[in-house]
Amino acid sequence: MSSINDKNQSVLISFWNYVKNPRYNVDFLKKDFHLKVWDILKLWSLLLVISLGVGMLVSFLLMWVGYDDQKHAIVDLMMNQPIYVLILFAIVWAPIAEELTFRMGLKYSAFRFSFFIGFFLILIINLSGTFWPQLANILPWLFSESQIGSVLSNLSFVIAIGLVLGIILRKTADPKKFEKFYSERFTWIFYFLAIIFALLHLTNYTDFKQIWYLAPILIFPQFILALVLGYVRMKYGLGWAMFNHLVHNGLLVVPVVLITRLSDGLMESIQNQDLEALQNISGSDLTILAVIGWGAIIFGIFILTLLINLILEAVRNRK
């Protein structure tokens, strides 16, 4: 059990105290559902501000070193796949798969550990296939040309590993020994998974060799995201970590999706700073721009409200 009563503590102070000393033996916070949602959204507001701030710095640095911003996995997915595939993978599948891979195993049970092993194995296999394309010839059933086919084959592999290993561990392993191992080394486990999660996102840069020296800055938002999600997973539950991850990805991806719906003519006029052409915008483009503009204002106010509440709560708690 946790030695600190976090129920009435500021979520920001609770988060900071936890990441300074991650602990395995903590109970889920007993709060009403709406209070948990409010806590998650407040932490997310801080995460979003950090991500946007570092993101602008990264964009400036990439432009300064002459890196083509089109060489990014999300841009490639956006340009070569239907919009529904982008939404499905970036907003739905990625948060679920990444939480099952990096956060599910932070609390031990035979099947949680087994499925964590399965997800981690498929991650290693996919990364190996990126650097060693011949692997697809050795394991063709794990590599599919379609995104959906790839997900289904990978998921089948994980389910098989998770079920078989889970049954074996449940019958043969002593859970107390596993939990003792977790408890004694949990800080290392917590930060190891956070760092691996952050480093994984370097694969989004398809020409990473050109900008390898910027790696610490490039992955900083993902590292903070991993700390937040790890804290949420341990104090609120895995489902809440998925929810936090989904909200974070959704707000970052949805504006990109809306921008891709603008006409080619308008995009060209914006890139060329052709003010005369911008005076003759079509009705559909105006609607999309209005949605983006008003959405930015509404979400900006909402995020600012969350952030102010987060800070004031911490100040009051310190007093």
Q: Unreliable runs, pLDDT <50, ≥5 residues?
A: none
Query: What does the main sheet amount to?
Result: none
How many domains? The number is 1
**Approximately what portion of the residues adopt beta-strand conformation?**
under 5%
Coarse shape: globular
Which class do the helix and strand fractions yield? mainly alpha
pLDDT averaged over residues? 83
Distance between the ends: 26 Å
Q: What attributes does this structure have?
A:
globular, 14 helices, mainly alpha, 319 residues
Tell me about this structure.
This protein has 319 residues and is mainly α. It has one domain. Helix content is 75%, strand content 0%.
Short description:
Helices cover 75% and strands 0% of the residues.
Give the secondary structure arrangement, pairings included.
Blueprint: H1 11-20, H2 33-64, H3 73-80, H4 83-102, H5 110-131, H6 135-138, H7 147-172, H8 175-200, H9 215-218, H10 220-235, H11 238-260, H12 264-272, H13 275-278, H14 283-318
Helix pairs in contact: 2-10, 2-11, 2-14, 4-5, 4-11, 5-7, 8-10, 10-11
